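Project standup — Tuesday

K.O.: blocked on the structure for the chain from last sprint. Re-posting the sequence here as requested.
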Amino acid sequence: MKTINFLLFALLVIPKAKAQTSNLSFYNQVNAEKNYLLPIDKASVIGTHPLGVSEQKTVHIIFPSEVKEIDVGNPHVIVQLTEAFNNVVRVKANARQKFAETNVTVITKDGRLYSFLTNYEQEPEILNVSMGHNYSSDERISKELGINYSNHKVLDESNESFVELKDLAQRAINRKHYIHNVGVYTMKVTALLRGIYAKGDNLYYVVNIINRSEIDYKIDFAKVFVADISEIKRVAVQEEEIPVKYYLPITKEVKSSTEKEFVFVVPFRAVSESKQVDFEIYEDRGARHLKMTIDNKIIQKARQL
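H.V.: unblocked you, prediction finished:
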């Protein structure tokens, strides 16, 4: 009986309201009868990327972090995580003809959610996509559309909030510098460690990048290693890579003749006298690779946030 009543409501009430207020949204039509419904604000919407697939060609999508979960809207699309690399996804059609538009959703280990509106294309225009290189465009277009760009909306496997990480990173970048004379210089680009802060299970490295060259410097990615060092030769003999969880700001470009401060959030690892931290920053499509060594005495100076 409840189902019948709801159908009668849908058939009789909503069309009537639509006829009276043709310019109202579905939300406004329903709220004419039920005023307790909350709308989804435009600023809360996360953008979706277009994706064309066919049966004859495979599309590869590279993500900047390990893929943890994939969801496909219908069986006409095949999605497979590569065996050799856990951040590359293969997508292709499971039909030789057009199918109803569907979606593919990917959640990565660093807490990001990626959405793809997927359609059949006999000859896909794009076959290989690197999502890590799409950040600047995503940010710019999202601002123009007035929608949400921050895609740190899910929790990782330790239930850590990336909203909290962002707030703590901002707090770290606002602190006064207290570390000096730790850094690296190459090809008119300098990286200086300005502070290390601790909160929970993470360390927040504040790094100032100064670009004195005539060419803009754009960070591709950063790597952090804890290395055992030989007491005899004082060289690294064994390394453990520690993944960078989060960085601030999202836009990683340092314009010519300018400088910018970044915060890199890294899980805490104990660093004894026989270990050191190697902090490496790689330029996007460039050779200005920055690598600095941070010994255990500097790590021990980390301050609480």
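K.O.: great, moving the ticket to review. DSSP finds five helices and 19 strands in the chain. Residues 1-23, 155-159 have pLDDT under 50 and may be disordered.
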